[in-house]
Structure formats: C-alpha cells, structure tokens
Amino acid sequence: MKKHRIFWCLILVLSSLAGNAQSAMNGYKAIYLPVQVFSSDSFHASRTGNASLKMTSEEIHDKAKAAFERIGFRVYDEVRQLPLEILENKCDIVFCSFSYEIDKANVPYEFSVVTLEMKDCQDSILEKVECRGKHPGSAWGDLYLETAKKTAKRIGAQYKYDASKKDGRMKAWLPAVEKTNETAVSMKTYFATQKLDPIEGIYISIPGSYLPYYKIGIKKEGPVYKAIVIESEFIGWKPGEVKAYIKRDSVSAGVFPTQWFYQDKKSIYTLCDYHDKLLELHSQLATSRIDSFHKVFPDGAPDAPSAAGAQPMYPGGESELRLFVSENIRYPEKYLAAKIHGKVIVQFAITTEGDISEIKAIREIEGCPEFTKEVIRVVKRMPKWTSGMIDGKKVVGHYVLPVQF
Fold first, then answer.
1. pTM for the full predicted model
2. The pairing of beta strand 343-350 with beta strand 356-363
3. What H or E segment, with its residue span, contains residue 58?
4. CA 137 – CA 6 distance, rounded (Å)
5. Residue 103 dihedral angles phi and psi, to the nearest 5°
6. Domains of the chain with bracketed CATH
7. pLDDT tens for residues 361-383?
8. How far apart are CA 346 and CA 356, in angstroms?
9. Using an 8 Å Cβ cutoff, are 32 and 93 in contact?
C-alpha cells in the first residue's frame, strides 16, 4: 500500500442478494446521485499532501458522477433533471445516499467514515460501500469520491444492462389493469369498416410530450372510449391493456373527462382535448404539462404506418429523439423573468436521404416567437434520419414534434 494512501474501503453487500449485487444492478440504466457540499477544509488533496490541488464540491461531484457514467449509467443529480418516465416510475432508477460519521470505537484512534448505500424503489439496499480514513487527516471530500469510485468499479466489473431483469421487477410490483383481446389487426379492421366518432382511431405518442413511445387505439365501448395499447416501448404495458377510459359525454366541444393510467399503472382523473387529429392529455390539472398523441389511422398523417410501409425514424428510435430534444433545448433567456409556459409544435419532412426539410410551426406561444425559433434551431441540429418506406421504396415522410416549455 502506498504511504500517502490514508483511507481504505469496506465493501458490504446485502445478504439477501447472495453476494450478487452487480447482477441486481443490471436491471437499471439510471442512477440518482445527489450533490454533496463540503466545507473548504474537506476537499484538500489529502493523498498528495499538496494543498494547491484543492477541488470544489462541484468538481468532486463531477468526478463521482463520471465514474458511474463510464460504466454505462445515466446519472442525474437533481430531481428536476429526471425525465417524466422516471418520475412516474421510480422503480426505473437506483437512489444513492451518503452518510458521514466519526468512529470513536477504536480509542485512541478515530476514523472518518463515509458510507454509500444504493437502494431500489422499495428502499432495499442493492449495494453498500464504506470508506474509512484516519481522523483528523482524511478529507470528507476525498473519502466521498473514493467511495463513489470504489462502488462504480465494483459494479462495473460485471455490469451489463439486462432488460429481462427490469421486466421481472415490473411484473412483481405493477398492479393489474383491464386486458382486452384487441390486437392491431382487429382494431384496424374495426376502424376501417365501422362508422366512427371523430375521436376514434389509432394514435401514436408524439416525442417531446414526455411520454415513452405508445401506439394506442381509441374505441367506443358502452359509455366510454377505451384507449387500448397496441405497442409500447415501456415493458410494463402489454398489447391489449387499457391505458385510459375516456367518457363519451364531453364537458365542452372536444373536451372529455378521462381516467388515465400512468406507467406505474396508477390512475389519475383529468381531461383530454381532441381537435385536428391531435389528442392532448392534461396529465395534471394543476400543471401545464400536456401529453400529446397524433392520429395516424384512419385519415392520418402522410407518414402513417401501414402493413407495407414504415415511418421515418430518428437514430436509436423515439427514446433517443426525446433525449436529444431534452438535452439540446434551451429556455429563451428573454422570458426567464416572466416565467412563460406553453407548447410549440412543429412539423417537418424527412427526405429519402434522411435529411430534414420544410420545417414549419403549426402551434406557437402567442407573442413569444423566440420559443419557436429555439425549437426550429434544435430540429436543424438533428442527425440524419432513416427515411420512410412504402412497398420497399424510400419515400418522403413527415413528422410532428411538440416541445413543452
């Protein structure tokens, strides 16, 4: 052991995991690592003894965060950074908590102790690592960083994301919802052969509306319209399950009382609007958040999928498109003081070469053109798409993108 190393780490694993904490972590992609703040004497470069190599709390946190990112995790350090799919389903993320204490049990020596616990949504410990250093002389910031690095190194030795572990976890805690026998074929046949109400049809969720990718069919049944899952990138929802009950008696033109089930299959009662082939769900009546779905059948958009065709696709799919938008969009500084909120919706074409063209706004925030300019700026920065296909031939497709500010 090097002489300047004045601390060591003890790795503790929850006994019920039978020493296999790394494999338990394989069902997760995201970690919540809250920022730690240390006093000025807590982050000197203790291992080198060089006081000129001080780091701020922010610098130490960034290094700890990078240790987990290097092994493949997405790391969030503020609740406001969390995407809505995680806020609605906290079992998709591992929560890190640190504790700090002085151990005086080994008189005449005292030890600084930093403990990291990584817990799931049920508050069960998946991983626990403790680092100790002689007190005084061990900087809290150094111990914190060493604890984070040791934990990342231990997990990273065997970490590989495994969606099946997430699937098993979902089945264990998700409540049951109504399951129908409807399929994509049965609903499309119904919509093609029956006299329909305007709201009935097949919809896809619009990226930027904070939803995972869903394709749903809205079909009347008795006093309600049922929103039935056709496809979902969220493994907790299966085809045929009822995602929402929409009352057929509207409270005003195009506005319907709705029971909507979140990703964790817990429901809220809210309102949805239908107009111009756009279904908008007010996910929380007390907030400005709106989730949007675009009708693609019947009389859908020019890029509506069919048995012989495919829509244009962003590299990596819908989830990567949402991530690109969220990481690149900036709230216009001009409106920070006024705290203006609203939604911008743009439509653009994807050429047969995958390039974006013909960008136009179909909804803007009145009197605030900078919001529209910002969305268009982000769209122009997108990489090439995979072009749409019909009968095996590349075709020009169209895409509708809403962004909520």
1. 0.48
2. antiparallel
3. helix 57-69
4. 8
5. -95, 115
6. 7-170 (3.30.160), 174-300 (2.40.128.520), 305-405 (3.30.2420.10)
7. 877 888 888 999 999 999 999 99
8. 12
9. yes
